[in-house]
Amino acid sequence: MADNKPFQWPVRVYYEDTDAQGVVYYANYFRFLERTRTEWLRTLGVDMVALAENERRIFVVAEIQTKFHAPARLSDELIVTARLTNLSRVAFDIEQNIYRDNIDGELLISSHVKAAYLDADTMRPKRMPSSLFGEHRS
Amino acid sequence: MADNKPFQWPVRVYYEDTDAQGVVYYANYFRFLERTRTEWLRTLGVDMVALAENERRIFVVAEIQTKFHAPARLSDELIVTARLTNLSRVAFDIEQNIYRDNIDGELLISSHVKAAYLDADTMRPKRMPSSLFGEHRS
Amino acid sequence: MADNKPFQWPVRVYYEDTDAQGVVYYANYFRFLERTRTEWLRTLGVDMVALAENERRIFVVAEIQTKFHAPARLSDELIVTARLTNLSRVAFDIEQNIYRDNIDGELLISSHVKAAYLDADTMRPKRMPSSLFGEHRS
Amino acid sequence: MADNKPFQWPVRVYYEDTDAQGVVYYANYFRFLERTRTEWLRTLGVDMVALAENERRIFVVAEIQTKFHAPARLSDELIVTARLTNLSRVAFDIEQNIYRDNIDGELLISSHVKAAYLDADTMRPKRMPSSLFGEHRS
After folding, report:
1. Shortest Cα–Cα distance, B41 to chain D (Å)
2. Are A83 and A43 contacting, i.e. CB atoms less than 8 angstroms apart?
3. B41-56, pLDDT tens digit by residue?
């Protein structure tokens, strides 16, 4: 599982993302990471809206470790990645990086994210159906 | 009703509020306006959380006209105002301004906001109970 | 000038854009409008980063009137438009709408925006060079 | 240094902070943490605006590890803490937690933050003057 190719998602930096230091505000990288997780899940066939409305199940970030190597700037084109590194019954771990321009470009952000599968009403962990991430199970 | 004194709420400008132009990002003034409406409603005894959960009623902005006179900067202390200018059965109009330092300071933002009272599920207008804004009715 | 076709830009709604009412938070539509103005200017050949760094010139919103007709929801695909309606020496007016799905879809937001061309250091109006918006001048 | 009492800063949760899951959007906790670092630095006599403008020095987050224990909700009153755990010539480490209601309330977020002192133009590490954090040096 560790050598699967990362999912990639492009992000353009707008004024809304920057701050008075002239670079992307640190909390906004977490928005880019979440957009990319959402699009990665969409490619896996996970419809988070239907999941929340019909099954009352949501994904939430339980832990995240992040290193900020270099700043992104206004108008930069970024590539954000997501790569599954571990999958349990109630959570998954992914590695997410942000690069300038493309995946061979400068590494700006590296992170490890643990996301849990919860009941939306009780916020308690729930077992993920085997149909989720089906192709990644061994 | 037009000469009631405005409600005032202080806002400190943090990095999160600014952008690469070195000033507050224009959309973020609308966050300051909404915080102030929330606090103004709280002083009137309106508990928006209870209203949403128990009555399924929410306030939403229906219209807003805004002029940006001068920019706020990192670390500025702002005063945001709210003053009721009109009240109907299903909506209220308020005037909201943002000043630097205090209400006699530089005028940065002036706005007129129409907020509607809706059913949270159908998003259709609902009649406000007379207990809301009771003291302002004539 | 009034019958020029609007520029269109797609926006996907993510969790970051929504609030506890289950819809897009009202201030975030202004982020969508600004992304679209940026992309519209880019198609006109305006490089805002170079403009700010080399010429110390920036565009800022001076006025905006906005009507919120219907809410956008998580995962919606939106189309945001920009259409020039007036051009003076130091400012331009544009009409910007947000539709669900496509330009023939439900109208969610309508707005009129006046943007001014300023010196980035003094924040005072400056005359736009005729090369900007060249093709729109008559 | 490890048993110094944490700095505390109150934060009220508004609609702007929440998302369609009905709780605070995960990236927004990082805004709360940064507000608190700013206020903590202010109490230590660090004026970040003067530092950036006069000395071209800024603080940036280099690393952050965060655990999300339980969600904050609309209208919650939170207490955010900051406690210095390590200080080098070019960086400091702090522990930051977020509690519901007060510091004896439910722990929602725990984090460890490494912040670096940089030249604002080159984004390279700079030695912090001994006057910064003077009272914490042994």
Report:
1. 12
2. no
3. 999 999 999 999 999 9
To the nearest 10°, report the CA torsion of D12, D13, D15, D16: 90
Per-residue pLDDT tens digits for D32-63: 999 999 999 999 999 999 999 999 999 999 99
Q: Which fold has domain B8-126?
A: Thiol Ester Dehydrase; Chain A (3.10.129)
The domains of chain B are located at: 8-126
Answer whether CATH 3.10.129.10 is correct for domain D7-129.
yes
B19 included as an active-site residue: yes
d(CA A105, CA A8) in angstroms, rounded, equals 13
Contact present, B9 and B39 (Cβ < 8 Å): yes
CB within 8 Å: A67 and D62 = yes
Please identify, in words, the CATH class of the domain defined by C7-128: alpha beta
Taking alpha carbons only, the member of C59, A107, A111 closest to residue B19 is C59
Q: Is the dihedral of CA C15, C18, C24, C27 positive or negative?
A: negative
The pLDDT, as a whole number, for residue D132 is 76
Q: Which of B41, B14, B36 lies closest to B99 in space, CA to CA? A: B36
Phi, psi at residue B124, to the nearest 5°? -105, 150
Complex ipTM: 0.93
Nearest neighbour of C123 by CB, restricted to B52, B71, B120: B71
| End-to-end Cα distance, chain A | 9
